[in-house]
Amino acid sequence: GGGGGQAAKVLSHLVTFPEPEDELLSSALFAHTHTPTTLALLADLSIDVMDVSGEQQMDVHHNLFKQRLDKFGNPVEEKTKEELARAKPGTNATLNLDPNRCESCYGAETPELKCCNSCADVQEAYRKKGWALSSTKNIEQCDREGVTDALEAQKDEGCSMHGYLMVNKVAGNFHFAPGRSFSQHNIHVHDLQSLGGRKFNITHRFKHLSFGDEYPGLVNPLDNHEEVADGQSMYQYFVKVVPTRYRKLYGNLVETNQYSVTRHVRGVDASKGEHGLPGVFVMIEISPIVVHLTEQQRSFMHFLTSVCAIIGGIFTVAGMIDGAIYHGERVLREKNELGKLG
């Protein structure tokens, strides 16, 4: 983490299906993370971290794993750790090209980027210009690398993600949203135009979300929490993180966190006049208090006192029962002697 306090590890496991709106599929979310999404999202599901200190981690890929899933939730390919935020060109068409070539940026050339020799270069050039790249179909580099075909092939897929994030111990958020993220004029932006103007169904399920190590009795409210989206929506989870120190019986100290959560959801369908980014946003607020929990073993004297109390209680109850039986018998005997018994 940077300034603003110590860094905290966020474990997540997310499975989500941001899919075309007419296909409602269930999914799952983990911040140790596991997520199903569309093909565009395997490369273009962006995980970003922002906080009030001004630090931004855009398109985080270190310590996160992504796994393609079909619409039934089955793995499509082996899970691989992403070394880059974008999908790598994988076709043989790029092997026979002149390494010194200078291909067109389709009008988006800048003094810093004059040549666009890959689809990623073209997309980057458009982002730097602030232009929307609504389709990759007529971009030679994208066609050559199979990006356009890949997007079409994976449109009904989901994505499973798991891993962890390092965040500062200050208020902020991390979010999962479609479209590659970038900063333009100090504004955080997601490029949805490159996904062909699709509407996304952000159905998701948190398999696990925690902030630090676990300790006995810890309950994470978002574990196995599932939401089925009704149309294109923005899900916001307002998480109150409480620093916790758990001292074990033999002195080992676990410094971790527990949390509570409040959920909010709203539609973001532009055709209905609604605005916003479809996705899952976890808004973090750090509590100013610290909870101390300590394991303690009861002493032998405490045990002995408890045993004596139990024995004393047994004798007391036995005496009450004996007294009741004795007095009842005596009353019956007196009535019998007076001839008043049935």
Q: What's the short version?
A:
With 342 residues, the chain is of the alpha+beta class.
Characterize the structure shown.
The chain has 342 residues and is an alpha+beta fold. It has helices at residues 39-44, 119-129, 140-145, 147-153, 300-337, and strands at 7-20, 29-30, 45-51, 56-57, 64-69, 80-81, 158-168, 172-178, 180-184, 187-191, 200-211, 225-227, 233-247, 253-267, 279-286, 291-294. The strands form 3 sheets. Strands 1, 2, 5, 6, 7, 11 and 12 form a 7-stranded mixed beta sheet that branches. Strands 3, 4, 8, 13, 14, 15 and 16 form a 7-stranded mixed beta sheet that branches. It has a two-stranded antiparallel sheet with strand order 9-10. β3 (45-51) and β4 (56-57) form a beta hairpin.
Low-confidence stretches: 17-43, 79-93
| Helix-residue proportion | 10-25%
Task: Determine the structural class based on helices, strands and strand pairing.
Answer: alpha+beta
Could you spell the SSE succession in H and E letters? Answer: EEHEEEEHHHEEEEEEEEEEH
Largest sheet: 7 strands, mixed
> In one word, what is the shape?
elongated
Quickly count the helices. 5
Radius of gyration: 31 Å
Mean pLDDT: 76
What portion of residues belong to β-strands? Answer: 25-35%
Number of strands: 16
Termini separation comes to 90 Å
Q: Which properties best describe this structure?
A:
342 residues, alpha+beta, seven-stranded mixed sheet, 20% helix
